[in-house]
Automatic annotation (TrEMBL):
Name of one Pfam family that matches: DUF2344
InterPro entries: DUF2344
Residues making up the signal peptide according to the UniProt record: none
Residues of the DUF2344 domain: 1-177
Name under which the protein is recorded: Radical SAM-linked protein
Bias kind Basic and acidic residues: ranges: 245-263
Span list, region Disordered: 216-263
Domain of life according to the entry: Bacteria
Length: 263
C-alpha cells in the first residue's frame, strides 16, 4: 500500500466505516462530510506502521468492537491496530516526531555510517524540493535528532543493503525521509544504486533528551461513560471517532502503517 495516496487511504477508510456500520457523525450544511481527521499522514511512496486518525461518532461505541468491525471491512494491506477514546487535546499535538527506517540496496553499512556521521556533524544540510508553490529550499539537519546504521541485509539483486534508522522531528516545512537521503548525498556523496525502501516505524510524543518516541495512546486519558478506557485497533489505515485509533498500512512489499481516530 505504500504507493497509495493519502486520498486513496481516506476513501478506503470512509468506505470501511460505512460497511462496518460505524455511526460516524457528519458536519452540518448543504454538503455534510464525515467528521474524520488525519494526523501526520505519510507521503506517497513510503510504507508506514504508524498512521493515525480521529473520528467523531454520533453515539457511544465500544472501542474494541469498532476496531474489530473496521478491521474486517478494510482492504488487504491496511490493519486497524488500536482504537481508544479521545482524551483532552488533539491527537495531532502528540505527534511530535517520527522514527524512520531506510533500506538502501547496494550500499555498504560502513559507507552508510560514514555518511551518517558527516550528516550529523554538519551545522546545516539544505536540500531543495519541488512543492505545489514551486521549488523550496530548507534545512534538513535541524530536524534529525538521531541517525544510525543498525545493520545490513542481503537482497536478491544486491549482496549488501545498509539499513538506516533515524528520528525526525515534525517541522514546518516537513522534513521527509527522502529529503534526508538527499542530504546524505550532498554531504557524503552517498547515492544508492537502487530505489530505497522507506518505512515509518513510529510517531508520537518526543523525548528530547534521548530522542525516543513514546506511544501517543499511552498519554491518552479518555474514558467511556462507564469510566473505562475505550480502546480498539484498525487494519490497514482505518480510523475511529472520538476514541483514538491506530492502524497499520501494509505496503505491497512489506511495510505497514498505524492510524488513530476518536469515537
Amino acid at each position: 500500500m505504500r504507493f497509495a495516496s493519502h486520498r486513496d487511504i481516506a476513501r478506503a477508510l470512509e468506505r470501511a466505516i460505512r460497511r462496518a456500520g460505524i455511526p460516524v457523525a457528519f458536519s452540518a450544511g448543504y454538503t455534510p462530510h464525515p467528521k474524520i481527521s488525519y494526523a501526520g499522514a505519510a507521503p506517497t511512496g513510503v510504507a508506514s506502521l504508524a498512521e493515525y486518525f480521529e473520528c467523531t461518532l454520533a453515539e457511544s461505541q465500544d472501542p474494541g468492537l469498532v476496531r474489530a468491525r473496521l478491521d474486517d471491512a478494510m482492504p488487504d494491506g491496511i490493519d486497524i491496530v488500536d482504537v481508544v477514546a479521545a482524551g483532552a487535546g488533539g491527537l495531532a499535538d502528540r505527534l511530535e516526531a517520527s522514527e524512520w527506517q531506510v533500506e538502501m540496496p547496494g550500499v555498504a553499512p560502513d559507507g552508510a555510517r560514514t555518511a551518517a556521521a558527516a550528516f550529523l556533524a554538519a551545522e546545516s544540510v539544505e536540500v531543495e524540493r519541488l512543492t505545489k508553490k514551486g521549488r523550496r529550499r530548507f534545512d534538513t539537519r535541524g530536524a534529525v535528532l538521531r541517525m544510525e546504521v543498525e545493520g545490513h541485509a542481503t537482497t536478491g539483486q544486491h549482496e549488501t543493503c545498509a539499513i538506516l534508522r533515524m528520528v525526525v522531528r515534525h517541522t514546518t516545512p516537513a522534513v521527509r525521509p527522502d529529503d534526508v537521503v538527499t542530504g546524505l548525498r550532498q554531504v557524503a556523496d552517498l547515492a544508492p544504486p537502487s530505489s530505497t525502501l522507506m518505512t515509518r516505524l513510529a510517531q508520537g510524543p518526543l523525548d528530547e533528551a534521548s530522542g525516543a518516541i513514546a506511544d501517543p495512546f499511552a498519554v491518552n486519558d479518555g474514558t467511556t461513560q462507564n469510566g473505562e478506557p475505550e480502546r480498539a485497533a484498525p487494519k490497514d489505515g482505518s480510523a475511529q471517532a472520538d476514541p483514538a485509533g491506530r492502524a497499520e498500512e501494509k505496503p505491497r512489499s512489506s511495510s505497514p502503517a498505524r492510524d488513530s481516530e476518536h469515537a
